[in-house]
Write a structure and sequence with these properties.
six-stranded mixed β-sheet; 556 residues; single chain; binds adenosine-5'-triphosphate; 4 domains; binds magnesium ion; alpha/beta; 12 helices; Glutamyl-tRNA Synthetase, domain 3
Length: 556
């Protein structure tokens, strides 16, 4: 689990149709070159995984290339810490980029391009305040008015822009704006800002610059500089495409990449925006960006999600032009399918009840040879000690069971998984009436054999009391109590946090071999779900397991 290389399924979507058309017309000479362009202002989440799989997947499918490009044009929000984390997450997902770039690598070229627009009288320095700019822009029903500085001469603009770069002016004193159309029905075309002054240290370029290009100017040109052919982004950029094309057309760049928009990947019971995730962390609703309840790749990874399970969801969920929210069970099912196939089986008890097998010799211990995976003999067997005292799940015994109860009941028989059939002879209680122990007898002829003359249907799991190790187990449930925590206009999304999203069980008995579990390994604890060691808090001798997902069907 984890180290496998992705295989890209050959399912076609509308993007394939666009690429096929380009290949036919020869627009890019048959090249396919994509990029994944995160802004390093937070950690990647499952929505980003969709974009990663799409961009890297398309490159792989067409024998093309995919770059990783940090869209780092806002020094105030960005940090080196995020850059490293994003690289690590992409590698973990199983992808390798062709080239690693930063938009900031192009600051010199972008400056020259901006000068090029000024020379063509297609950009000007505007000295209105932010409020004035907003007021002059108009709105959807009111056309904009031209800036008071729209008619500055090319010479004056060149001079002012150069002096902006030299640091002569404070933040906000001037901006550079594209000269397009103040009456356009598309607000993005009403003389958009393309450069602003920000006296701020940049994580990559340091103090070299005090003016920074804005997204719409930077993105198309970065794509062009890298020779990107298909610039895939999410739907909110559809209205920006005319600007993307305008910049490239005006500058007559040798390559003119095609921007293609698709609908964001959304799952219910999650709130994916970086802003929401940041609030959960800052206000300590979760333990950090890698809290196992977070939909970040760090959180999912710590929870026990495998790269394959995430890729499979990303690939299987399709690529669409219309927004929809998909069901979280897609993600859970994908993990179950992967782990059912690949996780070794072990036994652990979450809520123990002691059972003494009175017919079993006091000092005898049998090392039962138990298969690690029922469908995969190649995964071998392990020894599981069995003795006179065992621990079973409290819920696997009922004193007054309903009809058809298949687990243990007074006078009833049940099979201990991989071991004997036992019969409950006596229920021991304390003064308060609480059951503290069961006394059973075993049928010595039932180890690996069916009992004679009767049918025993129930099977329960167990751990030898004398040999058990102990671990803390963390059970997770959905982070929110409602499907769409962002969908309520009256209430803030944190009001829908599920108070029972984490349940901690101390000192659960686990079979002794689990003491050797390693971070990154997943196990099926039989009849309970899939679990993995917590990569942050677990220590040798003080193990902590996370439940990654329940077995099919049951949630809590
Ligand atoms: P968020 O909206 O979660 O804050 P973002 O879009 O601001 O994310 P970026 O770092 O700009 O985050 O995103 C990098 C790439 O990932 C962009 O191309 C963006 O369109 C894409 N992306 C972000 N969220 C999703 C999503 N939910 N589904 C698919 N692609 C996404
Ligand atoms: Mg963004």
């Amino acid at each position: 689990m984890g180290t496998d290389k992705p295989t890209v399924p050959l399912v076609d979507n509308f993007i394939d149709a666009i690429i096929a058309e380009h290949n036919q017309s020869g627009r890019f000479g048959g090249r396919v070159h994509t990029r994944f362009p995160p802004e390093p202002n937070g950690y990647l989440h499952i929505g980003h995984a969709k974009s990663i799989c799409l961009n890297f997947g398309i490159a792989q499918k067409y024998g093309g290339k995919c770059n990783l490009r940090f869209d780092d044009t806002n020094p105030l929000a960005e940090d080196i810490e995020f850059i490293e984390a994003i690289k690590d997450d992409i590698r973990w997902l199983g992808f390798s980029w062709h080239e690693l770039r930063h938009a900031s690598d192009y600051f010199d070229q972008l400056y020259d391009y901006a000068v090029g627009l000024i020379r063509k009288d297609k950009a000007y320095v505007c000295s209105m305040t932010e409020d004035e700019v907003r007021e002059y822009r108009g709105d959807l029903t009111t056309p904009g008015r031209p800036s008071k500085f729209r008619n500055r001469s090319v010479q004056e603009n060149l001079d002012l822009f150069e002096r902006m770069r030299q640091g002569e002016f404070p933040d906000g004193a001037h901006t550079l704006r594209a000269k397009i159309d103040m009456s356009s029905g598309n607000m993005n075309m009403r003389d958009p800002l393309i450069y602003r002054i920000r006296h701020a240290r940049h994580p990559v370029t340091g103090d070299k610059w005090c003016i920074y290009p804005l997204y719409d100017f930077t993105h198309c040109l970065s794509d062009e500089i890298e020779g990107i052919t298909h610039s895939i982004c999410t739907l909110e950029f559809e209205d920006h495409r005319p600007l993307y094309d305008w910049v490239l057309d005006e500058l007559k760049t040798p390559v003119h990449p095609q921007q293609i928009e698709f609908a964001k990947f959304k799952l219910n019971y999650l709130a994916l925006g970086k802003r929401q995730l940041k609030e959960l962390v800052t206000d300590q609703h979760v333990s950090g960006w890698d809290d196992p309840r977070m939909p970040t790749l760090r959180g999912l990874r710590r929870r026990g999600y495998t790269p394959a399970s995430i890729r499979n969801v990303a690939f299987a969920s399709g690529v669409s032009k219309s927004e929809s929210i998909q069901d979280i069970s897609l993600l859970e099912e994908s993990l179950r399918a992967d782990l059912n196939e690949n996780a070794q089986r072990r036994m652990a008890v979450l809520n123990p009840l002691k059972v003494i097998i009175t017919s079993y010799p006091e000092d005898q211990v049998e090392q039962l040879q138990v298969s690690n995976h029922p469908g995969k003999p190649e995964l071998g067997k392990r020894a599981m000690p069995f003795g006179r005292e065992i621990l079973i799940e409290r819920e696997d015994f009922s004193e007054n069971p309903p009809k058809d109860y298949l687990r243990l009941k007074p006078g009833g028989e049940v099979r201990l998984r991989y071991s004997y059939i036992v019969k409950c002879e006596k229920v021991i209680k304390d003064n308060s009436g609480q059951i503290v122990e069961l006394h059973c007898t075993h049928d010595p002829n039932t180890l690996g054999k069916k009992p004679e003359g009767r049918k025993v249907n129930g099977i329960i799991h167990w751990v030898s009391a004398r040999h058990a190790q102990h671990a803390e187990v963390r059970l997770y449930d959905r982070l929110y109590t409602v499907a769409n925590p962002l969908g309520d206009k009256e209430k803030h999304f944190t009001e829908f946090l599920n108070p029972a999203s984490l349940k901690t069980l101390k000192s659960c008995p686990i079979e002794p071999g689990l003491a050797e579990a390693k971070v990154g390994e997943s196990f099926q604890f039989e009849r309970l779900g899939y679990f993995c060691l917590d990569s942050v808090d677990s220590k040798p001798g003080a193990l902590i397991f996370n439940r990654s997902v329940t077995l099919a069907g049951d949630r809590a």
